[in-house]
Fold this protein.
Amino acid sequence: MLELAIGIILGSCALGAGVAMIAGIGPGIGEGNAVAKACEAIGRQPECKGNVTTTMLMGCAVAETTGLYALVIAILLIFVAPGRLVNILMDTIK
Amino acid sequence: MENNKERFKMLDTVYMLMIILPIVCGIIIKILTTPQSDDIAISGARIFFTLKLPIQDLPITESQINSWLVMISIIGLCLFLTHGIKEKADTKRQHVAEWIVENTEKLVNGNMGEYFSGFAPFIAAILALSAFSSLMALFGLYAPTSDVNVTAGWAILVFFLITYYKMKCGPVVYAKSFADPVLLAPLNIISEIATPISMAFRHYGNVLSGSVISVLLASGLQGLSAIILGKLPGFLGEFPLFQIGIPAVLSIYFDVFSGVLQAYIFAMLTMLYVAGGFPADEYFRRKAVKNN
């Protein structure tokens, strides 16, 4: 019975991490849009290349934040959560 | 005269050793403390020992040691670049040092305005510390920036700076800045708290995701070469065919490009937040009134 419970905990943590990383879609689309527009801008005004590139990189970094939140949660679910949850389970059984 | 030249050269050697020795020390510590194992493991910073303090124990981890090594290295680099500096630049290192100083001042003046031109050393320090910390991964060392505690420390420092400059016109103006449209005050407070959190997680997440992906790819390539060459006898069976070169390409992106870019972004966001939070119009108006 205990093995089953621990198995369910580990499986759910892995599934949760996978589901959390669906958030990667958002920054992907957003950064794609940003880079596309930056390419258009450089095509129209090649002399502004430096400014456009730095601004685009800043925007990309800010847009990336939500994806990184998801990454942090996924990493917590994989590396930290199973140990914590198994400990809680053991304590309740005692 | 001869004596002076010798002294100059000796100091140069000392500074160069100051740049190189910390990295060598880090590699030696890493080799001595890493337990031997065959499979590739993803682990956090290793705890070397714990200091007993009255309120809470302080664990001394790999990331702390490595960031101190980086700091010593950067101090050595600064001393080396500014050694034997003259009024008229005639050595390569002085040109490099002047280039760094001029560009940082240009960056700070362009983004923050004249009032904040004193911020240039701070911004340069953040840039150098962050970039060199991320570049530690090139030597196979644990990058301090892939520990959330390090980046959170920097982000909290920046948060204090932002709050200090927002408070420049007194607490009333500070409180008013949240209630710009009164209904949005809770959201403004949340976004104020989210600033250091997002700065810390952005830097840490980028560097950590790079190292995790590199480890996963290395273990995958190990498996692939074991499948393809495993049947061959003897030495050929263990030859790491796919581990040659391919991880280096990823390392260039994740360790060099991403690390330096994140350092730049961290410094840039620091400048934008500090300059953006400062109520410049109000401050200069009051100053003018006071002077009259």
User: Anything to note?
Assistant: The longest strand of chain B covers residues 47-51. The mean pLDDT of chain B is 85. The beta strands of chain B are 47-51, 58-61. Residues 2-35+43-291 of chain B form one domain.
